[in-house]
């Protein structure tokens, strides 16, 4: 008999989540971004999770955790009312709607906080995901992370607009 897959749920960030979110962050970068970033860039990017600032950023933003059977499998954070700072999903659940659920929630929260639009600095890997959701590219960026240059694209979506 076929068994239904568990449905993801959302909950707020707790300080005790930092180690598992750091592991999701690293796994996501290592396994999902290889077509867009070289190994040195990935290693520099992943090292950000080893810094104490990683946990402080999660705590200072509005961070949501996606769970399956109570275990975290992804997270997303909203900085202020109108900027998605982080969106990471464990590779084992990539393509199963976890990122969509997280961004849907952040868009609703941003709208509820009065934001008229939402921006994100999307990695080259995530750019297509955000474009499908109605985000439009605004500008290309190059940022230095641990002595490596990484490119991303600032994208913007007007909230309340049809997708």
Automatic annotation (TrEMBL):
Keywords: Transferase
A molecular function GO annotation: acyltransferase activity, transferring groups other than amino-acyl groups
SUPFAM superfamilies reported in the protein's UniProt record: Acyl-CoA N-acyltransferases (Nat)
Record-annotated N-acetyltransferase domain positions: 8-160
One Pfam family, short name: Acetyltransf_10
Record carries keyword Ion transport: no
InterPro entries: Acyl_CoA_acyltransferase, GNAT_dom, N-acetyltrans/Recomb-assoc
CDD domains with a match to the protein in the record: NAT_SF
PANTHER family cross-referenced by the UniProt entry: ACETYLTRANSFERASE, ACETYLTRANSFERASE (GNAT) FAMILY PROTEIN
The protein's name in its UniProt record: GCN5 family acetyltransferase
Organism: Bradyrhizobium centrolobii
